């Protein structure tokens, strides 16, 4: 089977992963409306391509928080990579490094931060965290991440409680016994069943700020009101995200929410987006609408499920090639030529 | 089979109920467009969830007509509960009481008002009625209900004639001989085949008013004009309802009609809604658009069909859990924080 | 099989009619988009029903061109009724008479005008015609119709050439040898293969006017411009029609075109509509949008195919019952209470 | 099997062509959204037909760049006609000549320009080209085309790189060894794998202009901005095209893009359109929206696949008959009567 586009990896993963693992990765909350909308919303956006522009020399590199990446696609934080591939997050880190892009490691990794760091010491790595009820947990994690060269903190704010994913309930999903939440061993066992603290509020951003010199990126913003609050509370970036449709169902597709967040932010901080990216032209649309970079979740897991580090590189390379081709056919030779003039919302 | 969401109960009921009973409960008028629209319309509404609000202490209680209920979901009046479970409305009354919510008993019950009342003496019960051509019928029913501690009257106004439900016609639907319309025994036999009086008009509200000190709620309003008339005729509440799509087909979904009714009422009386509620987030949407409480019809019957009182409690508990989770994930810790800012109508 | 709604008759006809006959009746032009849109467009209209109005005494009679009919549904002109039932148009005429409504007999009948007239001498009959290249043909037909008591002429203007109905081409459709176009025997043989004259223009209305004292109704108007021209040329009525989607495909559904025609006509002449009527509530929608009466084409043929005169009466009776019930549930006790306030176009 | 409409030819070609050839012709880029939208967009346009106009004498001839053609449908440039029929482009040229219309021969023909010219010496032929990196290639091709009596040059500008057509990648599509790119033999072998030069820009139009006295038509414009630039750079015509959805996916359907291009051009040059034409009424819609002529791509290949020259004539004849009939039924007797008043965009 030739791996030509990301759907090929999805089909492979669906076929070869254990059902419980596939279901966990594929899950959306409730009726999965937002999970699916994330994809459909991209298909309602049309390009306005320009012709006869010199696109012989293509430059698709960009910078996020000052670090150059080979193209504007990073790896979103997702948990439990060992469910997809034995080497888990270590493979993910190596693939991201090999493709010269950014990997946001999840607190809920099946490899420890230290292992991830060792797997790709000079890779661009960010660390995703929740603020646990026991503040010692995030405090220690932040310090470890900073010490290990992670270059930014990504605070997830959309998981006060875990969304209702029906298949996980039916399957009685739990991590197989030989896999461990390596970042939460020992004293932090308690965190394993309840990731966040529902009492967390905006003031906790100041507390987090006080712990570290790393940039703070807030993940899970969907409204202009919260975007404005995020900027006012001094974050360095916003990831427009609905957690892959796994938390509150029937929130807007991220590409739709991106428009209002970008408008509210007015360039004061960088805005990223995840959810629904399935081909290179989706990346181009997100950038045209104001995202600095996109992050992929499930497609990265499909790549891992296919061939570990190598499979994830395949996924990234396909996205990269498709993105470059889309840019060229739309008449853009480099990232700075991408703008809102490039897209319009379809009438249907 | 795990009962994870309301669709699981629907599937169970469809599988195990006699076809004639299932068809009767499932029936919609004509092409069933409104019956299905009631559900689809909810799916076109999107949340605008707010992050980083303290939702560690959730309070989902509310009050309807001054009585506290554990969460804003009551049991809508539907007929013939013995078709779903041998103990019929007595089970329904007990389940509502156990979950500390409101049960609107139907005139067309297969248990007598007296039995319903005895099954849950201290439960919050309202009584639904039609104004029959022979005014002695509603007059006697009102007096019985008031004496038995029912706390409000719900007047159905959308059944001047019975809608055309094709499957019922094909099945030649009729109540099995061992079931009785217990509220209409003896002198009231005549009412069994024609529930309402097509000559009833707004002035009859005054007549009903004169019979009782109970609050009067009008059920079946779909337009701003009628909402205004209801308020002017002194009712205490309005249930926006299209009778589950069983009367005039191709009227608007109730969640769409709710918007215009709430706008017209301007807070002068409480507004409720029924029809199409299938998950906790639907309740949240209805409240965001101005409903004080929602009522469920068919899902309650599926719960009864599954395990009687216990099954209906399961249904209510799932809705309650889902509603609480939706609220929290949308950033609301109590009912008063729910408002129109929480939702938007989808472009599609 | 119980005949509960019009779809039941359609299913019967599809099952029992010879394929060539079924295909001919069912045919639409090209991709059949307009044929199907005629039906779908009704489903996008929503009622705004009013409650608590006295609908105990229902009066659904109306008048068209001064003649009373039992309810606002007549029989549209369609050809070749013997393809559906041996007695053909004679059965149609009898059924229309029995139900006290109007039958528009087609020039392309398999019974002669004289036979149709004899079958229902005191029935309300209109006669449909084309203006043939040889003006002697329409002239003679008009004189016969007038002499036989037909009370109006319905001039079809949308058949300059016959539309392309793919199935008819594939089937090599032709009338079975034992059926005759009885109105075009003898000298008029030539007309059988080319119904109209593509050179006909508005001035021919004056010529037709000069031949007869009967009211002239123009059938096939879809635009405000042509509606205005029709009024100016002195017609007494307009049937908004797209020939059941059998002529130019991808013209608007008739219920959509009705709105602009009614607006243009401003009450100066009566406006009727055909196409897509499948249940009583469709009739109510057409009247709410300004039609004085609707005409049914294919459903009448299905009724004939089911049981001839009796089957067509069944179809009409079902429509009548459904129409009366819809009116009552919408809060209208008679035709004069129907108006545009009763409907709204659905957002979807 | 009767060939009644273009879909019949499509079904035939799908059944009888080798899979690799069918896939190549059918291919769209990525998800094939634009390929399919080209067709769907036509179905959202409704006619506003006018009645009682004299359409007895129909004249459907038109002129493009001063040359008369029998009806406003030409053959779009597509490659590799020998994949469809042994005689390849020679058959195409003969069929176009026989039907008295225009054939745009592709650079990527499997017959040489000289052969095409010899097959239909007095036919109206245009020549399509790319500007290759090695400018000697287009220069020589232009000179050959001009010498051979081709009457215009069609410059494709939407193929800076080849679009990603997944099936072609999976199939490892390549021309069978016995077929040759006859126009690119010998010194031009190099061009076979990379048709265009991604550095081409608007200034190259001036260079092309300097080579020839033939009119230059630019093919692949989709925006008003590029339409304005095309006019300013002195082209004689614009073909609104998205390369049959084979280049950048999710650009607008050509019939939608046509509207904005026609508006921008304001009659200064002729505008044509290709993509999605499947029946005569599509041609009428394109003309109503301002196209001077349309060009068909895949349908021409299906005709070739069916019966070579004869099959393509069948396709053109069907389109011609359907176009004439549509015009007549819409009330237009000649091309000059077609205008924007004839169409409206559907609400759905």
TrEMBL record, chains A, B, C, D:
Positions of glyoxylate binding: 24, 165, 243, 246
Recorded GO MF terms: (S)-2-hydroxy-acid oxidase activity; FMN binding
Catalytic activity: 2-hydroxyoctanoate + O2 = 2-oxooctanoate + H2O2; a (2S)-2-hydroxycarboxylate + O2 = a 2-oxocarboxylate + H2O2
Cofactor(s) annotated in UniProt: FMN
Pfam families: FMN_dh
GO biological process: fatty acid alpha-oxidation
InterPro entries per record: Aldolase_TIM, Alpha-hydoxy_acid_DH_FMN, FMN-dep_DH, FMN_HAD, FMN_hydac_DH_AS
Active site residues according to the UniProt entry: 243
Domain FMN hydroxy acid dehydrogenase: start-end pairs: 1-348
GO annotations of cellular component type: peroxisomal matrix
EC number: 1.1.3.15
Binding site for FMN: 77-79, 106, 128, 130, 219, 241, 274-278, 297-298
Top EC class of this enzyme: oxidoreductase
CDD domains membership: alpha_hydroxyacid_oxid_FMN
Keywords from the UniProt entry: Flavoprotein, FMN, Oxidoreductase
Family in the record: Belongs to the FMN-dependent alpha-hydroxy acid dehydrogenase family.
Protein name according to UniProt: (S)-2-hydroxy-acid oxidase
Lineage start: Eukaryota, Metazoa, Chordata, Craniata, Vertebrata
């Amino acid at each position: 089977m030739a791996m030509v586009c990301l759907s090929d990896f999805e089909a492979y993963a669906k076929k070869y992963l254990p059902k419980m693992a596939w279901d966990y990765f594929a899950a959306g909350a409730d009726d999965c409306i937002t999970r699916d909308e994330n994809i459909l919303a991209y298909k309602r956006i049309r390009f306005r391509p320009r012709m006869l522009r010199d696109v012989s020399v293509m430059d698709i590199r960009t910078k996020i928080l000052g670090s150059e990446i080979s193209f504007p696609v990073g790896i979103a934080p997702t948990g439990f990579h060992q469910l997809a591939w034995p080497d888990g997050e270590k493979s993910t880190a190596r693939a991201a490094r090999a493709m010269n892009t950014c990997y946001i490691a999840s607190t809920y990794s099946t490899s420890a931060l230290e292992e991830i760091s060792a797997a790709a010491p000079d890779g661009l790595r960010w660390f995703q965290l929740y603020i646990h009820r026991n503040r010692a947990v995030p405090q220690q994690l932040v310090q470890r991440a900073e010490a290990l060269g992670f270059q930014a903190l990504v605070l997830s704010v959309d998981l006060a409680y875990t969304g209702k994913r029906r298949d996980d309930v039916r399957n009685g999903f739990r991590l197989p016994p030989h896999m461990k939440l390596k970042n939460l061993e020992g004293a932090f066992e308690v965190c394993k069943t309840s990731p966040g603290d529902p009492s967390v509020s905006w003031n906790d951003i100041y507390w987090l700020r006080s712990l570290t010199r790393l940039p703070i990126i807030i993940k899970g913003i969907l409204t202009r009101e919260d975007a404005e609050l995020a900027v006012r509370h001094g974050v360095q970036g916003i990831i427009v995200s609905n957690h892959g449709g796994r938390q509150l169902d029937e929130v807007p597709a991220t590409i739709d929410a991106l428009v209002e967040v970008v408008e509210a932010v007015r360039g004061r901080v960088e805005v990223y987006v995840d959810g629904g990216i399935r081909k290179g032209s989706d990346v181009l649309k997100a950038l045209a609408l104001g995202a600095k970079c996109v992050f992929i979740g499930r497609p990265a897991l499909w790549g891992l499920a296919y061939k570990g580090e190598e499979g994830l590189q395949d996924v990234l390379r396909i996205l990269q090639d498709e993105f470059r081709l889309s840019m060229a056919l739309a008449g853009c030779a480099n990232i700075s030529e991408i703008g809102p003039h490039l897209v319009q919302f379809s009438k249907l």
